[in-house]
């Protein structure tokens, strides 16, 4: 990204650093908005990565090192046994957890994780890739549960060295199809390679089989699983009330993106990006290559997005239809407003810690997971509206 005369004039004039696709400026981080909520700590977890609510109101939480925890409404924390062995290193480990849309009937839960090479034995220098498995979940009266009948239904191909950019977020579409984000594993070119499923958004049936109406039917068997291509490191997937799929992904040095995902479109990485390489080499911006789909919002400096929910509850009625993104390096909760197919950052709430995950509770509340580290826990936070000030 280069500084244009327009950009310099905007900066000199103190232009607002709004994160939108229409804004060509090299932005500085906006000031945090005073939070209209209070955050209550409910529990702590070791490097939590994702969470999802169960019908009984309890909460499943993944811990990156390979444990699946269950947080009960009474505050008890139990463990769910039977989790597959994970490749816990770098960004790898246990990832997302999502319930089947008909979980109440079939008890199916889906997990994503980084797995070892084909031998399943090497833990330090073997090749790795993300996988998605589904299993039956049976809860117990002690506050935990167990997984059974575990079946791997998808794998990144090929497995490569390194321990970054797995992505492996999972989301079910309103029509029941399963979407998986597959990062390009810090290898750049696979995002455009139709013989690899790295750097892609994947669309499958709930059993892992391939829908016949996926867009890339003439590019090989693996490509038949692709829904869109040209992605970097997608750490948020969510459907809005209109059934549209939104995702966010980390840019390189600058250029974090929020994208509206369309069937069969190419989002350009690594050919274009609104960021630069870490050695400061330029990457052409999206507007130089209109054949690639441009982001609806983007950030430089980055927010390091993680977790995504599009809010539909009544606890915060003024936010219905807005999206919320957790910020890692920005240590923030970022609120997004939509206007048709367009999006913009509406507010940024300083949380003081790296936010890994955002989820909506069954009663319409907002819950967050802090990132945590090996040496300290990540807190589970419940957000509630601040009480209105009494009339004078």
UniProtKB/TrEMBL annotation:
The keyword Zinc does not apply. Pfam families: GSDH. Residues 46-376 form the Glucose/Sorbosone dehydrogenase domain. Residues 1-21 form the signal peptide. Gene3D superfamilies: TolB, C-terminal domain. Residues 373-392 are annotated as: Disordered. InterPro entries: 6-blade_b-propeller_TolB-like, Glc/Sorbosone_DH, Quinoprot_gluc/sorb_DH_b-prop. Keywords: Signal. It comes from the Bacteria. This is Glucose/arabinose dehydrogenase.
């Amino acid at each position: 990204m280069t500084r244009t005369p327009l950009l310099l004039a905007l900066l000199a004039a103190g232009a607002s650093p709004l994160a939108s696709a229409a804004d060509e400026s090299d932005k500085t981080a906006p000031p945090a908005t005073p939070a209209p909520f209070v955050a209550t700590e409910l529990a702590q977890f070791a490097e939590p990565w994702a969470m999802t609510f169960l019908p009984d109101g309890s909460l499943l939480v993944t811990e990156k090192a390979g444990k699946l925890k269950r947080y009960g409404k009474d505050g008890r924390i139990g463990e769910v046994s039977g989790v597959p062995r994970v490749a816990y290193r770098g960004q790898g480990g246990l990832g997302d957890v999502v319930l089947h849309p008909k979980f109440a009937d079939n008890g199916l839960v889906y997990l994503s994780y980084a797995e070892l090479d084909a031998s399943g034995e090497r833990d330090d220098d073997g090749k790795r890739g993300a996988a998605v498995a589904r299993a039956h979940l049976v809860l117990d009266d002690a506050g935990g549960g167990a997984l059974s009948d575990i079946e791997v239904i998808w794998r990144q191909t090929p497995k490569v060295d390194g321990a970054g950019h797995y992505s492996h977020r999972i989301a079910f579409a309103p029509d029941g199809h399963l979407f998986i984000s597959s990062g390009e594993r810090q290898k750049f070119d696979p995002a455009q390679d139709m013989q690899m499923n790295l750097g892609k958004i994947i669309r499958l049936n709930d059993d892992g089989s391939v829908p016949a109406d996926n867009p890339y039917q003439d590019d090989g068997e693996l490509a038949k699983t692709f829904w869109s291509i040209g992605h970097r490191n997608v750490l948020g997937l969510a459907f809005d009330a209109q059934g549209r799929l939104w995702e966010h992904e980390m840019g390189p040095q600058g250029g974090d993106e929020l994208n509206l995902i369309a069937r069969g479109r190419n989002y350009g990485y690594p050919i274009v990006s609104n960021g630069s390489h870490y050695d400061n080499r330029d990457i052409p911006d999206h507007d130089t290559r209109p054949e690639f789909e441009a982001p609806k919002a983007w950030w430089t400096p980055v927010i390091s997005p993680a977790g995504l929910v599009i809010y539909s509850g009544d606890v915060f009625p003024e936010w219905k239809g807005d999206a919320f993104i957790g910020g890692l390096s920005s240590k923030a909760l970022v609120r997004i407003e939509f206007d048709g197919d367009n999006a913009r950052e509406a507010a940024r709430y300083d949380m003081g810690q790296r936010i890994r995950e955002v989820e909506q509770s069954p009663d319409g509340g907002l819950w967050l997971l802090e990132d945590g580290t090996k040496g300290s826990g990540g807190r589970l936070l419940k957000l509630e509206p601040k009480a209105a000030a009494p009339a004078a």
